[in-house]
């Protein structure tokens, strides 16, 4: 296979030179030859502005190599979301290509803190901008088939780290993403209108969601996000470790995640529908989830599992102008259905939450889900985070082991709740259900947090079966 070393095209690792021209020349030569390896030698840090990958190119980072984003925000001129300039720019890009590989033992560093405002207690402040937020996404690939990302380390994203739009036949294996837990919007992997994806053996730490599946309106022509497998990953997030939504104008379906560990996260697994698309046929199995509360600047309230379907806020909502379809003035939310959680062990400051608008959530199954609830931080709890919604942002409803609100056909089998030594006055029942049509409790074990608290409470529920 032909090898194209970036230093042969003028790249220097002096920390001052913008090596974008060298990257572009090496990639162009590689693609023109029919494909090969663009080699980044392990001889130091190569600072660079934006460049694009092309068909047949393997970007190989040798051990000790580092690609660093140019800290001059003015070199970033392309919006990551087309006509919507308010959510970041493109650094490493690529579009309408096939058979792209990113490999090796080197590091791709987004230089994130260089694009932030001052460090505050809970997060870095965001810099003000007029219309164009120039914070670079690390990797944005659009309509790429046959993509492999393996071995490399991504660090310090200023915005989303790996954003795949309309891509297919994707294998992400053995990578590490090490983003600051104080940089907002620093998602790890975002699959957007993308299908047939395998994510395995990855270690991801991000201030925002570690792995997020969505269908953004800016790329509507690419269809649903579907046929996704996530296995053997470790995740830590100040927001949500694995999230489906909230942007979902099409469909997210046929997802299986198993054998994963979630550590010290504000929310473990989040299904968060806020737009008209559906979320269906989802399976999570063999997880360990450790949750804790963080500051309100981060979405999530330590729910180890959260399944919600509420329409997005319309009037006065900052997202309405870019999240709604042209001419749309009111939010709409699609169904969430056929979701299963199996063999999951949770330790957190909050319980599992299921809730949505009438008729929107159905066929939710919990099998062998074991939950331990204990107060471990100074942050106030007793709240479930429903942001961004048109109903309520933060729902103050006490902390229950399983809080089920307005759903159809919910089954709990061989589940348990226990309360730790450190409790809070807002701790409540093992199961609290309201407006659930079809509730099965089979082998559910657990008491109320206090002696006078009922272990199981049902309010306005129908077809309740207790075994």
Given as residue ranges, the uncertain stretches (5+ residues, pLDDT < 50) are none
Mean pLDDT: 96
% residues in beta strands: over 45%
Query: What would the CATH topology be?
Result: Pectate Lyase C-like
Question: Total domains, how many?
Answer: 1
Q: Would you identify the CATH architecture?
A: 3 Solenoid
- Assign the CATH superfamily: Single-stranded right-handed beta-helix, Pectin lyase-like
**Distance between termini?**
64 Å
Number of strands: 35
Helix count equals 2
Could you name the CATH class? Answer: Mainly Beta
Percentage of residues in helical conformation: under 10%
| Strand neighbour order, sheet with most strands | 10-12-15-18-21-23-25-27-31-28-26-24-22-19-16-13
Please identify the structural class as seen in this structure: mainly beta
Shape: elongated
Radius of gyration: 23 Å
* Biggest sheet statistics: 16 strands, parallel, barrel
